[in-house]
């Protein structure tokens, strides 16, 4: 079966997560970073679609929002997975996830994932570094990627009927 992972990576963390996820998914996997590639997709070419992004200043990337709006109705007809890369944990992470993805898409998803995140201060611009320092007190690179959550997400996806 063929899966498409659509994501947006600002500093490389989401791209790293997509690489790990791809290695754990069954079948053929194509991944597209909306920040790098501007192509019109034909979702009919794929059996399943996974969408992921990261949180910056409390919001998911604009390109992910636009993708969700553009393909909304088609996504409701697909085997769907949604994930979020963020440094927040617990209820705040769930709140950010729910704010990032429309309720009907969340309900239609076979797998939902919160994969942790990273502060890559070394890759941030001056403004981003100042915000992260002021809001979170972070001045050096930090990683909290949740490998188990990624593997669990892939396992749920791999057990779908289309992959059996």
TrEMBL record:
GO molecular function, a single term: oxidoreductase activity, acting on NAD(P)H
GO biological process, one term: heme biosynthetic process
Pfam family, one: Flavodoxin_5
Domain Flavodoxin-like: 3-158
PANTHER family membership: PROTOPORPHYRINOGEN IX DEHYDROGENASE [MENAQUINONE], PROTOPORPHYRINOGEN IX DEHYDROGENASE [QUINONE]
Protein name: Flavodoxin
Native source organism of the sequence: Neobacillus cucumis
């Amino acid at each position: 079966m063929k899966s498409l992972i659509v994501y947006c990576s600002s500093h490389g963390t989401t791209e790293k997560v997509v690489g790990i996820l791809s290695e754990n998914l069954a079948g053929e996997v194509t991944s597209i970073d909306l920040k790098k590639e501007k192509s019109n997709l034909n979702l009919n070419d794929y059996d399943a679609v996974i969408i992921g992004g990261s949180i910056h200043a409390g919001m998911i990337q604009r390109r992910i929002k636009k993708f969700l709006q553009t393909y909304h109705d088609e996504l409701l007809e697909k085997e769907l997975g949604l994930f979020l890369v963020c440094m927040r944990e617990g209820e705040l992470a769930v709140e950010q996830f729910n704010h990032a993805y429309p309720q009907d898409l969340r309900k239609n998803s076979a797998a939902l994932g919160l994969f942790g995140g990273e502060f890559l201060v070394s890759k941030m611009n001056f403004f981003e570094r100042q915000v992260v320092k002021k809001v979170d007190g972070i001045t050096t690179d930090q990683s909290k990627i949740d490998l188990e959550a990624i593997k669990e997400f892939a396992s749920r996806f791999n057990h779908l009927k289309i992959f059996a």
